[in-house]
Amino acid sequence: MTEILFIVNPISGGKDKKRVVAAIEKHLDSRLYHPQIRFTEKAGDATKMASEAASGVVVAVGGDGTVSEVARGLVDSDKCLGIIPCGSGDGLALHLGISRNPVKAVQVLNEGCRTQMDVARMNGAYFFCTAGLGLDASVSLDFAKSKRRGLGNYISLAWKDWKQHPEDNYTIQMETPAEVAWGEAVRSGDGTAGVVRSEWSGPAIFVTVANANQWGNMVRIAPMASLRDGLLDVVVVHPFSALEIPDLATRLMAGKANTSRRFLRFPASKVHITRTRPGAAHCDGDPFEAGTEFDLEVLPRALNVLIPQKEMDKL
Fold it and tell me: Structural domain tally of the chain?
């Protein structure tokens, strides 16, 4: 029997967790698991609980922030991440195909389908879904300060910030495996895979570096992103007019952002970003004030995770 620890954020998404706890107690397979449930009280608790857990499976019960905290405590360990999503965006869970219905999410734990996913870092800090600079980071900062949750409030804040947020100039230096950049394997003299180095410079409203395909709520900023390809998707969004917003929003929700002329996408394993002025940044929607230099990299297959059986070939 496997020890399983549920780490519950009681305030994530502004939702009462009694229904979730009841679903765990009623539907978790007692033949497979011996459960323990713990509640967080402050930021950082979930990472500490996860890293110290003796359990083979550690389940994040909350939103993207809770999932990220728990996952940080499990990277490069034998322990496995489970997710019962109940936040405002639930980006990683939705990419993984995990339902926001607590009973269905518990059933995923019972299936026990284990795989490995990539992990990313920005300036040494882990992220699992997306990191960003510019408008989306400013919106995340305002959203964190707001007492209202949900997609509607996020859209309202995005509109306000878009009107006020000036574009910035970025220089992005990237390393991409040659077989990805050129479509075929190219090897250097020492027998290691070749690397293509490239650079892009120009104005942008924001730059998102994606491990998973979305910000949350199925708003797919990087629809081509995979969690198991050893790559990050660098997405640059050029300045756009108010008249273009409905079209851009439709493409984001339809998973077709990459078809817009305002979007550029670069796959890379390592990224260095320079911007002209300090401002907001975020990792998995957790915003902070930052400087002008950023180093990002991917750690292939560094996290064990439980996902639905039907999603095993779709990541």
Answer: 2
